[in-house]
Every structure is written in C-alpha cells, then in structure tokens.
Design goal:
By secondary structure, the protein is of the alpha+beta class. It contains 5 helices and 5 strands; from the N terminus they run ααβαββαββα. The protein has a single domain, classed as 2-Layer Sandwich (Muramoyl-pentapeptide Carboxypeptidase, domain 2).
Length: 159
C-alpha cells in the first residue's frame, strides 16, 4: 500500500535525522493544510505561532527520551507525517510560555486532535502536550505503528 509515509517520508534523506525537522513538506497534505489554517486562525485571534517540529525520526526520539524531554521511548505520530508541534513565535523565536488552551478549539475546528485533551476534553489525562496536534486518534495509533493502516484523505478523528 502506498501512502505519504512510504512514498515521501521513508525516502527523505532526513528519515534518520538526529536534528528537529520543521519542514511542512514532511506533513501529510491534509495535516499540512490543517496546521497552516490553525496558524492563520490563531493570528486572527492575536496569537503568533510557528511550526517547531513536524517529522521526527526514531533516532531523535531516543535522544529526547534520554534527555527526559519526552516520556515516550518510541517515536509516535510525528514519524508518519501526521503530527506537528506548534509553538508561540516571540520576535521570531520559539516560545512555550503561557497557556496554549486556545489551541483546543482551533485543532478541533480543523479536524486535528490537540495534545492538551487528546480528543477527549472531558476525560482524565496523565500526559499533556499542549503544543502538539495530530490527525489521528490515540485509538488509531496502534494500527498506524504496526503498519496496518494509514489515514485516507477523508479520514476524520471525530467520526
């Protein structure tokens, strides 16, 4: 089965990169459009945002885990072009300061899951990642990671 992961990401020279990648070209097209729309809508609300990380290799995930930056030993949805970390832009520099709660409504509006509620705003969450958005549900991650499934263009995490 050919999909964005197998046809683009796996062939990219940064597939094993140990540096963060913020290239929007490594976001699956539906995810890319949604991220750009979030940034645009946030700006209209007075929030200046920037893409911090799109694709992430397993090698970089291991470095992040060793540093304690993440609690996830194995790379997640970033590896498949279906997730993005969006941070505030302060004088052109990335910032994680302040609340990112405004991202919840924007992610939902553009059919992405927000890492502050993982698509379940009323549920308890032991792991929060308020700068993170992704195109698939946590439930669907297992199938993705096992290589059994990749979302079609019309996939919605809310249906």
């Amino acid at each position: 089965m050919t999909n964005f992961y197998t046809s683009i990401i796996k062939k990219d020279p940064r597939f094993h990169s140990t540096k963060p990648v913020s290239d929007l070209a490594l976001l699956e097209p539906v995810t890319r459009v949604a991220v750009l729309n979030i940034i645009r809508d946030a700006k209209e609300q007075g929030h200046h945002l920037m893409v911090f990380e799109t694709y992430r290799s397993q090698e970089l995930q291991a470095i992040y885990f060793k540093r304690g930056v993440t609690r996830l030993r194995t790379v997640g949805v970033h590896h498949y072009g279906l997730a993005c970390d969006i941070v505030k832009s302060v004088k052109g520099q990335p910032s994680w300061d302040g609340s990112f709660d405004f991202m919840q409504a924007l992610a939902n509006k553009h059919n992405l899951i927000w890492g502050g509620d993982w698509g379940e705003p009323d549920g308890p969450h032991s792991f929060l990642d308020p700068v993170h958005v992704q195109r698939i549900t946590v439930y669907d991650q297992g199938r993705l990671f096992r290589g059994e499934w990749y979302p079609e263009e019309n996939y919605s995490p809310y249906e």
